[in-house]
Amino acid sequence: MSTPRWLRRAGTPRLEFGADYNPDQWPRAVWDDDVRHMREAGVTIVSLAIFSWARLEPADGVFDFAWLDDAMDLLHANGILVDLATATASPPPWLTAAHPEILPVDRVGETIWPGGRQHWRPTSPVFRTYALRLVRAIADRYRDHPALTAWHVNNELGCHNVYDYSDDAATAFRSWLRDRYQTIEALNDAWATAFWSQRYTAWDEILPPRLAATYPNPGQQLDFKRFSSDALKDYLIAEREVLREITPEVPITTNFMVMGETSAMNYADWAAEVDFISNDHYRTPGARSADELSFSANLTGNIAGGRPWFLLEHSTSAVNWQPINLAKRPGEIERDSLLHVAHGADAVCFFQWRQSKGGAEKYHSAMLPHAGADSDLFRSVVALGSRLGELAPLAGTPRTPARAAIVFDWESWWAAELDSHPTDRLRYRQEAFDWYTAFLDLGIRADVVPLAADLSGYELVIAPILHVVPAALTARLTGYVEAGGHLVTTYFSGIVDENDHVWLGGYPGALRDLLGIRIEEFAPLLDDERAELDNGLTGSLWTDRLEVTAAEVEVLASYKTGDLDGRAAVTRRPVGAGSASYVSTRLGPEGLGVLLAELAARAGVTSDLPAELRGRVEVARRGDFRFVFNRTGEPVDISALSPAEPILTARGVAVLHA
Predict the structure, then answer these.
(1) 463, 493 in Cβ contact below 8 A?
(2) Which pLDDT tens digit goes with each residue over 622-638?
(3) Of the residues 354, 376, 394, which one is the last residue of a structural domain?
(4) Would you place residue 12 in the very low, low, confident or very high pLDDT band (cuts 50, 70, 90)?
(5) Is 469 in contact with 580 (CB distance < 8 Å)?
(6) Mean pLDDT (whole number) for 579-607
(7) 373 and 340 assigned to the same domain
């Protein structure tokens, strides 16, 4: 990050605790009750005015700050910091009525109308003019307010409007392409426009990948994904520059969404544009829901480069937007919160403080629920605030790096899941997550790191579906292995360069020589097909017709059925002081656990947990503290780690001195 700063505040470091606060949803008489309960819960910070544009600017150029002045003063008087939003997330009705040209357009040409949120084009010059005017007005108004601790740019940038296919987007896309390629000839080469008579002769001929008769050009699709992420980043920078001009001493953040299948924003690329990383995370249903939370928090901590980061939103209990919205079970609010803390968060906040009585999110849980303060949920919130207060010495302490890492690459995610591929069933993030859960099941800590991270400190690196491999990355990975690192990659890796052009000569292209293998043809599997391996494991989704080309390659597992009977399925090649391994099928977390145990042992990476605890608990380290999380629904005996408190309750958390 260009300016690594944390919250502007005075006093002893602490873990911040709070929520989005929306006082403009409630009568003024409720606010005093709010702050009284905030103090009871131990709230130290709130994010304010996130969706307040229509209230702050009720008519064009007419500003009403009186209510926000009152809220800021009230919070300050009660010792509560404010992460003040720029309020630009949703334009007010008067703006869209006067300027419908700011509304996004989808790929089939339909306008995205007002009525929800984020109904604005990231590339609209008209929207930007009005939004930056509001940002400037807010910054001028509150630049010296003692409650102001940070700026919150917009909200969840790109959550609903990342892909806009409007004429504004087309104009901006062409400009972005000119900057990237300089000449139309270079673009034609990158997009392979000789295919299907797509050769361009002028920049104005180029459009976003709108609805087409068949698959749009894959180079066009990949570049539009890059452009769309960059367009939002450019908007973030525009707001940031106004804020820095007026309040250079106040740190700036925006809430990322490192969670689930949110793929469109390249957060590793955005990280340098804010003063500290913030993230929103909501659990999705499933048996490994808490593991996915850990995966996302781990990746967020590594995007932050080991510096403190801010959990801006998660839920106290049920959300409102899943098909079935389940309340959290006892212990989960604390477990979920401390999983983020264990992976580097120095602030734990929720959406929202008081549960709304109307609107689209009225059934989304909050710190103060519909039932009020006399509720089990609020008592759990108070208990969590107390626990975070006890953990204040953790504030500012770094995450302790693991010995193993999983590489996460947004461009490979985008490119590997484009259409017209060997299978449309491939899911990049799921494969990465499967490896992470395999590590957890073995009791081995692993970091989830952006592709640009320094890998030299890791003894074992997993690079699943590393589909996009430019020549420089080949050299970097080869250097890592030759220096003693142990690299593992998987099916559909090393296939294309940065232009989505296939590396010729046989797959896995850019990694073929390093791995000592060659594949002439992919062999994806139908939904009901499985591939049996001679080590007892079963593959799905994908197989490869793999040929070993280097004498030193060791075959760790072979296929034993079908047309691939006898062919290698998993290989390992010693290279220099390290090794390079290849897994040609999807094994899932259980199968990967068996394979990973062998690969990790050969790399000298083993669990430091007692055998009886491996897989039953997750351990994370920060500074002098060790977090132990119960991954099961039953009590676990952790006396080997904590003799003083030997029983860890279901979904419980123990924080121990390392």
Answers:
(1) yes
(2) 989 999 999 999 999 99
(3) 394
(4) confident
(5) no
(6) 97
(7) yes
Collapse the DSSP code of 381 into the 3-class scheme (helix H, G, I; strand E, B; otherwise coil) and give the result: helix
Name which of 137, 161, 160, 159 is nearest 52 in CA terms: 137
The one catalytic residue among 16, 57, 156, 332:
156
Question: 594 with 650, same domain?
Answer: no
Shared domain for 280 and 414, answered yes or no, is: no
Tell me the DSSP string of 518-578.
Answer: EEEEEEE--TT--EEBTTS-EEBSEEEEEEE-STT-EEEEEB-SGGGTTSEEEEEEEETTE
Residue 159 token pair: 């959550």
> Catalytic annotation on 390?
no
Strand 647-648 with 148-152, pairing: unpaired
Joined tokens for residue 116: 């929800």
To 10 degrees, the CA torsion angle through 471, 473, 474, 477? 170
Average pLDDT over residues 518-544: 97
Residue 292: active-site member: no
How many other CB atoms are there within 10 angstroms of residue 261's CB atom? 12
Confidence label for 286 from pLDDT (cuts 50, 70 and 90): confident
If asked whether residues 430 and 384 sit together in one domain, one would say no
Asked whether residue 482 falls in the same domain as residue 538, the answer is yes
- The total of structural domains in the chain comes to 3
Q: Per-residue pLDDT for 167 more than 80?
A: yes
138 occurs within a structural domain: yes
Print the domain residue range for 432: 404-602
Which pTM value belongs to this model?
A: 0.97
In tens, the pLDDT along 360-399 reads 999 999 999 999 999 999 999 999 999 999 999 999 999 8
| Residue 274 φ/ψ, nearest 5 degrees | -125, 160
Residues written for the chain: 658
Task: Name the pLDDT band for 185 (thresholds 50, 70, 90).
Answer: very high
Would you state the pLDDT for residue 122?
Answer: 98
Given 16, 239, 313, 431, the catalytic residue: 313
For residues 450 and 473, what is the distance between their CA atoms, to the nearest angstrom? 13
Tell me, letter by letter, the H, E, C secondary structure of 497-529: CCCCCECCCCECHHHHHHHCEEEEEEEECCCCC
Beta bridge partners of 657: 625
Residue 353 CA to residue 334 CA, distance in Å, equals: 16
DSSP line for 270-312: HGGGSSS-EEE----SSTTHHHHHHHHHHHHHHHTTTS-EEEE
The pLDDT-based confidence of 2 (bands split at 50, 70, 90) is very low
Percent of the chain as helix, strand, coil, to the nearest 5: 35, 20, 45
Same-domain status, 571 and 617? no
Specify the pLDDT at position 4.
57
Is residue 483 domain-shared with residue 629, that is, in the same domain?
no
CATH number at residue 503: 3.40.50.880
Q: Is residue 113 very low, low, confident or very high in pLDDT (cuts 50, 70, 90)? A: very high
Question: What number of other Cβ atoms are within 10 A of residue 654's Cβ?
Answer: 22
> Considering 602, 625, 648, which residue would you say is the last residue of a domain?
602
604/14 Cα distance (integer angstroms): 37
